[in-house]
Amino acid sequence: MFQVRIHGRGGQGVVTAAELLAVAVFDGGKHAQAFPSFGSERTGAPVVAYCRISDHEIRAREPIMEPDVLIIQDASLIKQIDVFAGLQPRGYVIINSAETAEELQLADKIKVPHSLAILPATEIALTHLGRPVPNAVLLGAFSALTGVVPLEAVASAINEKFKPKIAAGNVAAATAAYEYVMNQVATHA
Amino acid sequence: MSTTQVKFYQVGSFAVGNRLLRDDERSVQSDPDRTNALTSGHRACQGCGEALGARYALDAAMRATNDQLIAVNATGCLEVFSTPYPESSWRVAWLHSLFGNAPAVATGVAAALKAKGNTTTRVVAQGGDGATVDIGLGALSGMFERNDDVLYICYDNEAYMNTGVQRSGATPPAARTATTQAVGAQPGNNFGQGKYLPKIAMAHDIPYVATATIADLRDLEAKVERAMTMRGARYLHVLVPCPLGWGSASCDTIKIARLATQSGLFPVFEAINGEVVASSKIRHRVPVDEYLKLQARYSHLFSPERNDQVIDHLQRIADKNIERYELMGE
Amino acid sequence: MLRQVEGSKAVADAVAACQPEVICAYPISPQTHIVEGLSQLVKDGTLPNCEFINVESEFAAMSVAIGSSATGARTYTATASQGLLYMVEAVYNASGLGLPIVMTVANRAIGGPINIWNDHSDSMSQRDSGWLQLYAENNQEAVDLHIQAFRIAEEMSMPVMVCMDGFILTHAYEQVDIPTTEEVKAFLPPFVPRQHLDPAEPVSIGAMVGPESFMEVKYLAHQRMIDSAAKVQEVAKDFEAHFGRKTGGLLRSYRTDGAETIVLALGSIIGTLKDVIDELQLDGKSIGVVGLTSFRPFPYEAVAAALKGAKRVIILEKAFSTGTGGIVTQDVARAIEGMGIKDFTVIAGLGGRPITIASLRNYLTNAMAENIERLTFLDLEIDTVEVEINKERALR
Questions:
Q1: In this complex, which chains have at least 3 CB pairs below 8 Å with chain C?
Q2: Is residue B2 part of a domain?
Q3: Would you call B162 an interface residue with chain C, using a CB distance cutoff of 8 Å?
Q4: Contact B95 C64 (CB under 8 A)
Q5: Distance CA C100, CA C154 (A)
Q6: C173 to A38: CB separation less than 8 angstroms, yes or no
């Protein structure tokens, strides 16, 4: 079982991100369980969403305490809450930011060996979507970094969810993020 | 030969009678084949205004709908005295659910008929003043707002009668009830701003709002029949004196209803889409005293001596109604 | 058709496939997505010949349902928590009048204090109301139970609550097979009411029943509830024949053969428990789980049979009776009376407190050694409450 935890703020489409990921996994023929953790409905408040991925039926429903993947949609949360809590060794971290790992002071925060991708997802979204919504974008990065879902499945999930024009923008942005991260990985290899 | 217009009135024993009218203009009650929706054997008090009003209203509704009627009843006197299991006085399809939900239940009946494509069967809901004005007001307002196809009839005897004459939102000022006793500095019900449901109904701009009493039964029938020619939310507010609760003689029920209208305390009118379109003019105006002194619930206003202040206040209310609803004149 | 969809949406589609004629609901978290979904289906014509009534309160919702069902229309509503409580008078009225209304309860804690998250206090508070109560383990079962519920309700002339954990199931995206309208039609015939409001054959429904008959009327309802257990099983069996899945029914046992300790629970926690049981069994522990689907009618015989041979039963509950303890426990204890099985209660997840695998593993390990209290509140902040209790006691 592969466990993904997504952190962001209300209004950034964190819940939609988990939903899209679940659909992408399903389209790829696997089992997925996605659900949000609920606080008050308020834009700007920290929000967490979860997605479990497995080849078998998923039965457990506890919040994901030991994620294999962390997606941080809003880097300002890093200083505010312990978003990295429970990260599994050799897990994956994807952060939406224009800053570097040093600037984000990640070395102090992430205590286990991990694969890291930092990308300016909001900017990528603005370029391809015209709106600063990084959720679908980051799924492209997820695909590239973890290989758990192919980019095609992410695209298919996006197309199922959104109207054609918006879907096209999101797919383009997700693809751009995918290539960005693949490049990053290649560079550090 | 010159002709004179003669006005025929239904006035107690001086009634002109139905024989001068066409069949379809006659009272439903003159038809031996009428539904008799609320048949005899029920347990209402002698002289019950509500039993009279309900029978007339539902028989009229049945004729107007060719017997295609479902009635929903709130908890209250009417429901209690008409259905002591295993007996029922109702000869129409009838449903009683709870005290505060008759409007919503009727909405449900209307919705089911609509879903089934049944456009002929119509729905009437009925309840007392307590069920309508107080506990059921939310549901009534919801029904009005959605314009559900229901005629709601409120039988107003101005208190929670079945439970022992407690005050309701419709209890008039100064009236004695079990919870507004005729004791203390201000005996009887307080002078508040009231909760006049006909105006609340009009504020919802529903297709039809009317008031009526059991003193003018042909008028009551005509209003029910008129209401049934329309679709959407309709409201009929009927004054029904209660001999037990009002402390009046059971033979005076109709007379008291008439005095309520002739004093101006109970205006009789019709409103379409929130605007008054017609009112019944007062034929023989009387001071409120004439109305009040027949009822023991107001006896504290006359004994040990006439309470001028309170009775004058009531008179002013009557005067205001007469002015507001244009109750004098032709 | 197999889809990856939100639980609420799945339920909305399943209900729509049953072709209700009247849907009347008032929004309350966490049921909102269900009624939004249905409203859309009615408005865009996907669900034809159906009236969707936007009522002004939950009391109105159940009241509209009563009027509709009494007129012979298949009727559905949904609520949770405070909303369920607000309609209680009408809830009892619906079952008293024998109306086959189906209602989703998106299980949520009852306030005060206000809490919008999951537990079972809402539906548990209505256990005496004469409604059947069926609890879904996952969203597939939630879908299936609604379809089964209409048939059970209409064949018994009794209303049915389908309970699904608020947020945990309603807002979870998982894969679900949702039968089509045609498939449901083959399983669920049109509603033929036992009696209804019809001008052609007028009846009076809702008479006043006095002391001379009330006991008999109530006894009949009691007996009907007992008889409904057979109907629940029959419909589940027929559902399996039609759709090829074992969902619904009275209860389900998981790895209980020869188990010394058996956990009994309702709703989504059963899934998490299965994972914990697998872990413990790998460690050689003798433990299994019984997932109760039907809480009302309470399947006394089936529970006794399922727990037979165990040394102890741990009843995990998401609600409790203040000052007393477990609610389900009381029925379980009666079922296993004289069988020599000890019962322990653990109250967990109140107000949406997450129930973790780690926590369950820890508690159950102790439970198997009977190193637990008779009644436990899982993951309670003991230190905090002790300070508060001492403070309060000092004040009295």
A1: A, B
A2: no
A3: no
A4: no
A5: 5
A6: no
Q: Where are the alpha helices (DSSP H) in B100-165?
A: 102-115, 129, 137-146
pLDDT reported for residue C109: 98
Contact C367, C261 (CB under 8 A): yes
Range of the domain at B203: 27-324
Mean of pLDDT values over A15-20:
96
Mean pLDDT, residues B99-121 taken together: 98
The C-alpha angle with vertex B117 and arms to B111 and B121, in degrees rounded to 5, equals 70
The number of folded domains in chain A is: 1
- Cβ distance A33 to C355 less than 8 Å, yes or no, reads no
Q: Which of B165, B157, B108 has the alpha carbon at shortest distance from B133?
A: B157
Name C277's Cβ contacts closer than 8 Å, sequence gap at least 6.
Answer: C254, C255, C263, C287, C288, C289
Q: Do C68 and B109 touch (CB under 8 A)?
A: yes
Among the partner residues C117, C172, C275, nearest to A34 by beta-carbon distance:
C172
Which chain B positions have a beta carbon within 8 Å of C210's beta carbon?
84-85
CATH number for the domain harbouring residue B181: 3.40.50.970
Question: B18 CB near a chain C CB, below 8 Å?
Answer: no
Residues in chain C within 8 Å Cβ distance of A65? 356, 358
List domains and CATH numbers for chain C: 2-243 (3.40.50.970), 251-383 (3.40.50.920)
User: Measured between alpha carbons, how far is residue C222 from residues B58, C91, C161, C331 in Å?
Assistant: 37, 16, 17, 15
Instruction: Work out the average pLDDT over C375-379.
Output: 98
B19 in a structural domain: no
Q: Has residue B12 been placed in a domain?
A: no
Nearest CA of chain A to the CA of C225: how many Å?
31
Structure tokens at C334: 């009666």
Domain that holds residue A8: 2-188
CA distance C197 to chain B (A): 5
ipTM, two decimals? 0.94
Across the interface, which of C21, C57, C209 has its CB nearest the CB of B85? C209
Q: Classify strands B69-73 and A69-72 as parallel, antiparallel or unpaired.
A: unpaired
Helix, strand, coil abundance in chain B, percent, nearest 5: 40, 15, 45
Number of domains in chain B: 1
Per-residue pLDDT at B116 exceeds 60: yes
Q: What is the pTM of this model?
A: 0.94
